[in-house]
Amino acid sequence: MKTILHEYNNGNTHVTILNDGTKIRSYERTPNILFPETIDIKITNYCDMGCKYCHEQSTKEGIHGDLSLLLYQLKDLPPGVEIAIGGGNPLSHPDLLFFLEKIKKQGLIANLTVNQGHLKSYLRSISYYIEEDLIKGLGISVTNNNFTYIKSLLELSENIVYHLIAGVSKVSVVEDLITLSNCKILILGYKKFGFGIDYYNDSIRQNLVEWYKALSNLRGKCVISFDNLAIQQLKVERLFTIEGWEKFYMGDDFTFSMYIDAVEKKYAPTSRSLERKSFTEYSLLEFFSMRNNYERI
What we know:
This protein is of the alpha/beta class. It has helices at residues 67-74, 96-106, 119-131, 148-154, 173-177, 196-199, 202-218, 228-233, 242-248, 284-288, and strands spanning 4-10, 13-18, 23-26, 38-42, 82-86, 109-115, 137-141, 160-165, 184-188, 223-226, 257-261, 266-268, 277-278.
């Protein structure tokens, strides 16, 4: 049963977030918002997976961000704002539990994105975060069709979203995922950024074409959403009526959202933005107020 998790006013916009992750905005004329609804945060650049397309360029030599300093940047955000925590491997950060406890007290909604390859090693920790209500949503970057540990987590939470990268993930994996209960899939665009620049090749281009062709046949099989880059690369708008697009499209990058690199201590419009600003230059809300001066990426 759907229930209201949070409600808040942001400028002239009323936001309602349901316990299944659904977000509803209501406003008159044009939204005039004062703070980001969602912040994508990189808390570490350490990762041992060695993904050759990693846009964050995370490696075993990567370092962790200062989460006490990050908490100070988040202090002015009201309850209900969503924090998408990632890395690198965010599960490797020694202060992750401390961070989750602090932002829960602040009323922020924590969502955690992890690599499927880390589920076995960190299953106990992830289960604890879910059981203690420290994370509301879990994003799993799917890399294979062994769903043993995913099934274990599904016994604890229905708010699990499977992340697939257009250009990397095979379209056929969707058929495997829909065998799981309450299937929700987020399709991410291929980021020609970081390691993704050199890894981009004919195979990636062909895979993007396959995703483009397959989208119309995937509708109705499960809940599918897209990041803005995938919307652009796969031309998702073609699948909607004008009215449908106006209803479901959640806005351009850096309109309701932003990115923080807690390792480099910098703000940016998105994780692939070249122009970034230091914590020492601006507060979070000051940076967000500058969004109309940034070119949309």
